[in-house]
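Checklist before submission:
- one chain only
- standard amino acids only
- sequence pasted in full

Submission:
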Amino acid sequence: MTETENQPSPASFRLVYVPGVTPTKWLRVWEERLPDVPVELLQSAPAEGHALLLSGGADAGLVRLPVDRTVLSAIPLYTETTVVVFPKDHWLAAAEEVTAADLAEEIVFHPQDDTLDWPELPGRPAFERPATTADAIELVAANVGVLAVPQSLARLHHRRDLTYRTLADVPQSQVALAWPEEATTDLVEEFIGIVRGRTANSSRGRTAAAEEQRRPSSTKKSKPQPQQRTPQAGGKPRPKPGQRTGGARTGQPKRGGSGGGRKK
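Returned file contents:
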């Protein structure tokens, strides 16, 4: 076995994220604070993202709620606006905002990877459910029906022949940071601090604390030595015994006055 094989590989952080979620801004901060720890990005469908976390295939994930809170910890991050996607020449394009009632006569696709928790689906159901949101977008482009999705997914599947409007009074999708509750590692703690917007000084995490414990004693800062007292302004230091001050030895009487000669 070579020397290179004996060296342990550097730790990495595995982050799964679902379509429509953009982790770029958090990864940029991660690279600044932990440049030696690479991030392995794993993109997956919404349901597969949860399964990947539960199986240990990822350390944390940017997923859509709900998640199983009995095994996963989750921090809600933001709520997305729901929009309805339709062809640009559709009559809905004249409206600034659409309601569920406006879709009463429209075929509304409900893909199998839909992340919206509908108490009641708007519009008329399609003959069958498309397998994915991407498949539903293709059917919308063919002018077969319309599709309600979180706004980020409408942007992700943008096409020149399609547009969208805000869909009011309907369920919305919530994005959260989730991780296995029993696997809250140091790197997970670091990413939580980044996502929550903590500064590097206020949120160094357990990793930094461990590094401080592992730091050799020679690199630790020594206690400052007490400084010697200095005389106050305008004062004179007390001379030591035998020390000359002004050309005369202290403790000895001065010689005769001006002229200083011996009398004859």
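Reviewer check: The longest strand covers residues 72-79.
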